[in-house]
Amino acid sequence: MPVSVWKEAHRPEKAVEDSKQVIAALRSSSGMSAVGAAGFCWGGKVVVELAKSDVIQAAVLLHPSQVTVDDIEDVKKPIAVLGAEIDKLSPPELLRQLEQVLSTKPEVEGYVKIFGGVVHGWTTKYKDEDEASVRSAEEAHQNMLDWFIKFVN
After folding, report:
1. SS (H, E, C) 73-105
2. Which stretch is the leader sequence (predicted)?
3. Domains of the chain, residue spans
4. Among 79, 81, 68, 87, which Cα is nearest to 125's?
5. Torsion of CA 94, 106, 60, 121, to 10 degrees
6. What is the dihedral of CA 53, 78, 146, 128, to 10 degrees?
7. pLDDT tens for residues 93-116?
8. What pLDDT is recorded for position 41?
């Protein structure tokens, strides 16, 4: 399937609505009251949209794409952004802008971390034999878990 066709079928707006339905079903069937959401790459856009509402309690974006400064301005929930030093989709300059916006929102806990020496997708696309890559991915995964432990209860 061509990427353009896939992207059209998987627009962030549709994924947000699908996610809301899944979260509602989980809450009604399990009694779950708190939800954290993690978005990798284009999923970052989906999760940042969820963080603008009361659907989730916390968000983590890992090497996000399509996320804008305007998106972050509208966030209502604690959000961590874990980015790569070498990333054309979310370059460090953009990540610093996101951090600046979060610093002006005392009502929203925010955290931005730029991982040195890694590229977009490093948390999911690394070679097991590359110890530095594995360490960096594991650190990001632990940061994500720590964020959820802190805010999803």
Report:
1. HCCCCCEEEEEEEECCCCCHHHHHHHHHHHHCC
2. none
3. 34-151
4. 87
5. 20
6. 70
7. 999 999 999 999 999 999 999 999
8. 95
- State how far Cα 64 lies from the chain centre: 6
Which residue bears the tokens 């802190």?
150
pTM of the predicted structure, to 2 decimals: 0.94
Which CATH code fits 34-151? 3.40.50.1820
Q: What is the pLDDT of residues 8-23, one digit of tens each?
A: 888 899 999 999 999 9
CA torsion, ordered 77, 71, 142, 15, to nearest 10 deg: 90
Question: Can you say whether residue 81 is alpha, beta or left, with left for phi > 0 and alpha for psi between -120 and 50 degrees?
Answer: beta
Q: What radius of gyration do the chain's Cα atoms show?
A: 15
Dihedral sign for Cα atoms in the order 42, 81, 148, 20: negative
Backbone angles phi, psi at 30, to 5 degrees: -120, -10
Residue 106 DSSP class: T
Record the tokens describing residue 13, joined without a space.
Answer: 């707006």
